[in-house]
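Posting here for the record, re: flavin-adenine dinucleotide.
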Amino acid sequence: MTEYDYIIIGAGAAGLMMADGMAKDPAFKDKSILLLDKDAKKTNDRTWCFWEQGPGPFDPILYKSWDHIYFAGKEFKNSFSIAPYAYKMVQGIDFYSGYLERIQKYPNVGFVQETVKEITEFPSHIEVIASEHHYKGMQVFDSRFNYEKIQNRSKYPILQQHFIGWFVKTKQPVFNASQATFMDFSIEQKGNTRFMYVLPFSETEALVEYTLFSEKLLPEQEYEMAIEQYMVSHFKCTDFKITDKEKGSIPMTCYEFSQHNTKRIFYIGTAGGWSKPSTGYTFRNTEKKSAELIEFLKTNKPLRKFTRKNRYWYFDLLILNILYRNNELGRSIFEALFKKRSPQLIFKFLDEETTWYEDMWITMAPKPLPFFKSLFRHLFWRITNSKKQW
Ligand SMILES: Cc1cc2nc3c(=O)[nH]c(=O)nc-3n(C[C@H](O)[C@H](O)[C@H](O)COP(=O)(O)OP(=O)(O)OC[C@H]3O[C@@H](n4cnc5c(N)ncnc54)[C@H](O)[C@@H]3O)c2cc1C
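Prediction output follows.
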């Protein structure tokens, strides 16, 4: 059985960032690292977008970046300059191939395509049983995620950011290539939080996504009909080709993912709770968290000390509780935010970098009543310490 210091399960965003970060850090030069994935990571299965100020580590593989975003609510709509931020996009395939190529050059890292079936933890080590081989390791970082694991165990509401996107090519120029549609709530809400998300690559090419923040997925044709209608109603375009599609569902929850960590198994990425609960944005957070985790490993402190709740966890919880109970309120909350506060401040808040004063300023933008109700419900729940979902 081959032995490794670290075994990373999953060569997705988190696994690759962890493997690369450790391999290029001299502190890990004598450590052996195995990266396992069931997939060869040769398909463009997703696009990642994130906002960032100035240059960043993914700039060499950026597909497109925008310096303006568009937001539309029911009554308010606006195009915003987001300087000093840029809204950046990376294609999955460029990320996977770039990272895998680099990782395979490190002498102490190996990538193997195999499906992990089981992990057994012993006091002194871990055994990973994969489809072809068994591996022995001292520490596992696991990025496998499944909803079932959290669905019946959560004390907290679980929503999903779910979507289907079409990559379209139109005959006529219809898109404004310098502006990404961050959220367009001008569509029918049908009792939910539903919006269109558009990433234009040129005047004739874009990714158009129908997105919900809600509890349950829709039948596929409902997302697709909505995209088709939007192409007609918003872009006045019927003559277009679908060149590709993407779909996804990202958990939106304050669920305590860290409860699954053990002495030798530590969950990372979405499986480790690295998706921002109130938005589903994960990619940039994964970059930050993996860098922090690598620094933390050098301290030799127990990994259970790595995860801490901060005040943004409570903000996320308040908003998720509102959206869970009154899913139709999403549009008015986001509309108030974008009408009354700058996108720069909203990005800063979502990046969890605001001051207390800025936090108050942001939270005072939407109507306060649902937030007070959500806060009181949480306090009541804390006092009664109910095991029930609150
Ligand atoms: C279509 C789509 C678009 C998204 N867009 C954005 C975005 O724009 N911005 C953003 O911030 N976030 C976005 N996300 C959310 C999030 O960034 C991604 O889901 C991200 O890939 C999560 O990284 P991860 O490493 O946790 O999981 P993944 O990238 O999914 O990696 C998990 C890996 O584990 C492997 N695996 C699973 N089971 C096994 C097994 N048994 N054995 C071996 N390997 C296994 C999988 O093959 C996969 O490679 C998007 C998600 C999707 C699905």
